[in-house]
């Protein structure tokens, strides 16, 4: 068998190609590693917000001004005000307030809720949740969505689940 010889020029061409492939692979690995240092982050509005003065809300009405932006309804009765979550307790759809029928109706599976948030029809297993609501020092309503109150646990009796007017 005859020995094959490689010219010096061919050797350095292959060596350059190998180093180029190695550098490209390292660059790709570094780029992929840097991706983990800058993850995608969801920016959400703060969980607390000022909802205005109690006088801004009509008595015995469901106010929908915060439905889209803050995912809650504010309800005012003669004696109290409370903030209901817009998340159906069945599968998480957003019910609609039907003023003519005086109820919340979920478009996904037909769950119905009274103005109080109590479920009365459809597959929803429990009432809507309330968010923490207090009066600030300036007399404005403060809503804290990080604290939820569930009726079936008796939490609707908590003084922070509603504001007495």
Overview of the molecule:
The protein is of the alpha+beta class and 165 residues long. It has a single domain, classed as Rieske [2Fe-2S] iron-sulphur domain (Rieske Iron-sulfur Protein, 3-layer Sandwich). Helix content is 21%, strand content 28%. The chain has helices spanning 8-37, 67-70, and strands spanning 48-52, 61-63, 72-76, 80-85, 96-98, 103-105, 112-113, 119-121, 130-135, 141-149, 163-164. Strand 9 (130-135) and strand 10 (141-149) form a beta hairpin. The mean pLDDT is 92.
Topology, element by element:
Elements: H1 8-37, E1 48-52, E2 61-63, H2 67-70, E3 72-76, E4 80-85, E5 96-98, E6 103-105, E7 112-113, E8 119-121, E9 130-135, E10 141-149, E11 163-164
Antiparallel strand pairs: 1-10, 2-3, 3-4, 4-9, 4-11, 5-6, 6-7, 7-8, 9-10
CATH class: Mainly Beta
- Under CATH, the topology can be stated as Rieske Iron-sulfur Protein
Tally of DSSP β-strands? 11
Using only C-alpha atoms, the radius of gyration works out to: 30 Å
CATH superfamily: Rieske [2Fe-2S] iron-sulphur domain
Outline the low-pLDDT stretches: none
For the biggest sheet, the summary is: 7 strands, antiparallel
H/I helix tally: 2
Measure the end-to-end span. Answer: 103 Å
Could you report the average pLDDT, rounded to the nearest whole number? 92
In helices, the fraction of residues equals 10-25%
Features:
165 residues, alpha+beta, Rieske Iron-sulfur Protein, seven-stranded antiparallel sheet, four-stranded antiparallel sheet, 21% helix
């Amino acid at each position: 068998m005859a020995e094959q010889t490689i010219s010096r020029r061919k050797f350095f061409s292959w060596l350059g190609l190998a180093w180029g492939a190695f550098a490209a692979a390292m660059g790709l690995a570094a780029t992929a590693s840097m991706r983990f240092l800058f993850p995608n982050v969801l920016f959400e509005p703060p969980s607390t917000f000022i909802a205005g003065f109690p006088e801004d809300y009509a008595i015995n009405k469901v106010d929908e001004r915060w439905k889209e932006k803050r995912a809650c309804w504010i309800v005012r009765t003669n004696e109290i005000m409370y903030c209901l979550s817009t998340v159906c307790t069945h599968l998480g759809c957003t019910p609609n307030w039907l003023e003519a029928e005086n109820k919340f109706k979920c478009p996904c599976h037909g769950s119905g809720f009274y103005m109080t948030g109590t479920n009365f029809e459809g597959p929803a297993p429990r009432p809507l949740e309330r968010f923490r609501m207090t009066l600030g020092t300036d007399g404005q309503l403060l809503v804290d969505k990080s604290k939820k109150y569930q009726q079936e646990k008796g939490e609707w009796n908590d003084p922070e689940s509603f504001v007495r007017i």
